[in-house]
Amino acid sequence: MILTWFDTCVLIGTALFAAFIGSVTGGGVTIILLPVLVVHFGIQVAMLIVTLALLAAGASRVTVYRSELDWQVVFWFTLGSLPLTCAGTYLFTIAAPDLLTRILGGFLISAVVCQRLFTQPLSGFAVAWFLPIGAAFGFLTGISAAVAAILAPFFLGYGLRKGAYVGTMGFNILIIQIVKLAVFGNQDFLPPSVLLYGALLVPFMIAGTVLGKKFLERVSERLFVMIIEVIMILAGLNFIIRGAA
Fold it and tell me: Any stretches that span the bilayer, and where are they (predicted)?
């Protein structure tokens, strides 16, 4: 599919805004970017492009917040997530698009509920718990890239804040996207058009991350979270309706 200049500008602007929000809050990239991609490309191609965008976002967050990463969390989370990411991503390549759309919608709405239920830090939360958390998240994100928000209560519960929260989550998401791209490539799910549009968004994802860091301590995180939650609910309902149509 060849996009018009207007549609291309809309995608670029959305990617820049999504990366900025993600750099400030640690999430929201998929929630903001994916609905726009779905409108233009459909659910399966959109998920492939957003994987490339998340790869760029994760790499840029690791670079920007590298001095604040929690390497223990990275180790345990990655250990659990790698094998299950392969399984979930393979399921994505063989599942029906309408089913994926409904699953995505359910995840978006569930993420808001989880974030509202777990607003306080969790007590007695050992770092080794990130092994099963990583495993569960790896499988879910293999099916749907829009589940990053469900990690928020666990990362916050462990005590990660600001740059440590954003950077550590960014590193884990970066590793997962590399695994997903390897599976997609093995299943011949990365045609040149997908790579082209994904590459188009990369510099704007990086720019958004850099801008987000500059405003991290100045902008109200609560306001951004509220905006993201509204977008998640609306997009989730939209995807559920689309999948049932």
Answer: 12-34, 41-59, 71-92, 130-156, 163-183, 189-211, 223-241
Per the structure block, which two tokens stand in for 106? 């359910």
What's the Rg (C-alpha) of the chain? 17
Using pLDDT thresholds of 50, 70 and 90, give the confidence band for residue 75. Answer: very high
For the record, the structure tokens of 33 come out as: 């970017």
> What are the E-state strand segments in the chain?
none
Query: What band does 241 get if pLDDT is binned at 50, 70 and 90?
Result: confident
Q: Write down the pTM of the prediction.
A: 0.69
Whole-angstrom distance, CA of residue 163 vs CA of residue 86: 28
Task: Using DSSP, state whether 191 is helix, strand or coil.
Answer: coil
The most distant pair of C-alpha atoms in the chain lies apart, rounded to whole Å, by 53
For all residues of the chain together, what is the average pLDDT?
78
CA distance 29 to 16: 9
Domain count, the chain: 1
Mean pLDDT of 30-51: 81
Q: What is the DSSP letter of 208?
A: H
**H, E, C per residue of the chain:** CCCCHHHHHHHHHHHHHHHHHHHHHCCCHHHHHHHHHHHHHCHHHHHHHHHHHHHHHHHHHHHHCHHHCCHHHHHHHHHHHHHHHHHHHHHHHHCCHHHHHHHHHHHHHHHHHHHHHCCCCCCCCCHHHHHHHHHHHHHHHHHCCCCHHHHHHHHHHHCCCHHHHHHHHHHHHHHHHHHHHHHHHHCCCCCHHHHHHHHHHHHHHHHHHHHHHHHCCCCCHHHHHHHHHHHHHHHHHHHHHHHHC
Structure token digits, residue 222: 């609560």
